[in-house]
């Protein structure tokens, strides 16, 4: 998966998340938007929901990636703080990973 594809996937997931959020709780949807932590309105449960949606979208494209694993949670700087850090994390973990045979 190319970096531009990953960015669009993350942005689409943010848009989807916004559909279920109140007008005053909308997340910014941009290439440098915050995801978790100030100034994002997303709380920890919202983050979990967003990451599940993102995992499902990645899986639908034929790749397996889990954000709740020890590697993601033990990062010195959270990969969930903004769009660029999340995109970098996804790219790093998908680099060299073969697609799942069922989704190809």
DSSP helix fraction:
40-55%
Largest sheet: none
Domains (count):
1
How many helix segments? 4
State the CATH class. Mainly Alpha
Provide structural commentary:
By secondary structure, this protein is mostly helical. The chain has a single domain (3-18, 29-103), classed as Non-ribosomal Peptide Synthetase Peptidyl Carrier Protein, Chain A (Orthogonal Bundle), CATH 1.10.1200. The protein has helices spanning 3-19, 44-60, 70-73, 83-94. Helix 1 crosses helix 2 (44-60) and helix 1 crosses helix 4. The mean pLDDT is 88.
What's this model, at a glance?
This protein has 104 residues and is mainly α.
Write the layout of secondary structure elements.
Elements: H1 3-19, H2 44-60, H3 70-73, H4 83-94
Can you tag this structure with a few keywords?
mainly alpha; 4 helices; single chain
